[in-house]
Amino acid sequence: MVLLMAALGVASCEQDRGRTYRANVNAAWIGISSDVDTIQAGEWLCYHKLITAGLEDLDTIYITADTKYWLWVNEKLVVREGGLPWGPVPGGAYTDAVDLSDFAGSGELRLDVAVWYWGRDGFAHQSGPAAALRISSSTAAVVTDTSWSVAKHPALSPRAGGPYPNYRLAASHVLFDGSQKTLADADACLWGYDGPWSAAVVHTVLDSTSHEESIPSSSEESQQRTSSSTGYNHTLRPIAQWKDFGRKPYPQAPEMPLVSDGTPLTLDLPYNAQVTAYLDVTSATGGDTITMMTDNFRGGGAYNYKAAYITGPGRQVYQMPNWINGHQMIYDIPADVTVHDLQYRETGYATEIAGSFHSDDPLLDELWTKAARTLYITMRDNYMDCPDRERAQWWGDVVIELEETMYALDRESDRLTRKALLELMHWQKADSSLFSPIPAGNWDKELPTQMLASVGKYGLWTYYLHTGDERILHESHAAVKRYLHLYELDSTGMVIPRQGGWTWGDWGDNKDLPLLFAGWYALALESYADMSGIVGDPDEALWADERWTSLSRAVQSHWTGSAYKSSEHTGPPDGRAQALMVLSGMAPASHEPALISLLAEEKECSPYFEKYVLEALYRLDQPDIAIDRMRSRYREMIESPLTTLWEGWSLNDAKWGGGTYNHAWSGGPLSLLSGYALGVQPVSPGYDTIHIRPQLGPLRRASGSLQSPHGEITISIHQSDDGLQVTYDVPSTIHVIEEY
């Protein structure tokens, strides 16, 4: 087993797994002052060290920053936007492993680091106490100590003007004052900063140079951490650095150079993307403020991020460091500024859209494509509900996202799922409850039904089934056990709904919460029983089986003859509840005709729950109804010029939660089209055995592909009056069960 010990031990390096590196015990957290209030939220620090000896064996360095960093080596940009928001565990930070072996033996090494201090809590970040940097390495010359130089960046600040980012977001706007430092190169070392410098100061509030002991990691490719007597934990970054698509021209930019007339320039992006804006301008006298934002600045009703640049005199270039997203970039450039060039740089999670779906229905093809685009833009540091309003790891969204990755993306995406699952378990409260979004510094409310989904069949178990990562079951079992044992049954055998911090259920109306809790709890018990058997806890497996049986008996007392309806529910039967009765296996075959009729008509659920309603129809062998409903409910999103799917059925409708136009939970049809229409599903963990059972319904032909742990699977189906003609290509290591 290969472990990271941030100050004493060894670590696996993502770029070179299997080798080990011993980190330096003398590495310190360094900043500009021992006064933690010296640097305010959103400000920037510059770090610098020139090294002329001791570089013969330079190899991997381990960088922890509060919060994001940019690393240059010999004035070459090596890491763009390194670091992850804090919170692998409460009070912990992520550490990047960066391979510098290419620079070993050089006569001189110049290290420059820019650190962007977020300095406030958010829905996906637990803020540390100070702007600081820590570099550990087996090469003593590069470790952070008082020999480093540091300065507050004079040109970078959060003061780009209001409206300011909403409270869910931990970062800030970014302003660069070019009148302080005019740039000739957009990637210039520390944006051209060359001092004056001060000697770095050790932050004792963060410093981890005292004795540290390793906590054994259960996977050399997963989160690995150390425990410090000073209370700060270091977790090796479990995902790759960002995919950089390079700087590109806008598809339909106006002819340049041009002289601005003061009217904002709105430039289309090729699709909804995570981007930073670039400009090349000339200002006669300097002092002109250029603002950069997207059409999505007011995402879902709440403001997110923008950037601003104050010109110096003459010609200059600038690229904003903070990523934003949208379909259009908007440059607000004052009159008489000459614009030579405007470009954008797209970055994103390091994965590829490797799966596909094609059919004779262009609506469904477009729906799959938009779902894949929505999925990709809601992945980065963590899974997100949306990349604009919150960037938060809500688990109702994650459960849907993680299954989509199995069909749409390559297997590098599994690392983000594993990261999310371990964060969920590590943030379990002392009272055994789970909550999301996490990591978080300003939110701790439990959404019980989302938590049941996350630890159950559609969350943890779906990840295990598709990846074969049995280790995650061992790592999670204790936390899942504690959480499921919080739920109690009433005298009739029904599960008592937990109030949590937000007893939500779904957006929309007519929610039958007792039955929703029963369905989600049953699904969690089913996978927990299997999980307990695998990890060697037969008593818990028996407990879960018996509780599922008891709950199932109790649920039948709420059958009215045509639907399930709890005694507490005053409205008509809830379609969401009927779907969960089907998916949990609690609805007997004799009830299916009535449930099919109800599920075909009842449409109170949001796009979040629509996935489960549609899946219930597929499970009831009703692909015609499922596809007809899919076309109908998603038609407005499909036909919209937007390239991503929305939070609700209508934009900016309070009934559906507000209305971000790029919301993760709306992509459920992608998994259904690949897993049910094409019919490719794993039977045994990790795709050792798969089931091919196409349900084309009204479609006459469909084809697609996915990246399994064994390799690519492709399938093509043609439906005629004579039946189905199915051809497929799978790796020889996969056993196929056909049913068609």
CATH class category name of the largest domain? Mainly Alpha
**Which fold does the CATH topology of the largest domain refer to?**
Glycosyltransferase
What is the SS-derived class? alpha+beta
CATH architecture of the largest domain: Alpha/alpha barrel
What portion of residues is helical?
A: 10-25%
Distance between the termini: 45 Å
Low-confidence stretches: 1-22, 208-231
Q: Tally of extended strands?
A: 33
Average pLDDT, rounded to a whole number, is 91
Could you characterize what this model shows?
The protein has 740 residues and is α+β, with helices and mostly antiparallel strands. It has three domains: 30-153 and 193-241, Galactose-binding domain-like (Jelly Rolls, Sandwich); 244-348, Sandwich (Jelly Rolls); 356-729, Glycosyltransferase (Alpha/alpha barrel), CATH 1.50.10.10. It contains 13 helices and 33 strands. The strands form seven sheets. Strands 10, 11, 17, 18, 19, 20, 23, 24, 25 and 26 form a ten-stranded mixed sheet that branches. Strand 31 and strand 32 (723-729) form a beta hairpin. Helix 7 packs antiparallel against helix 8. The longest helix has 23 residues, at 513-535.
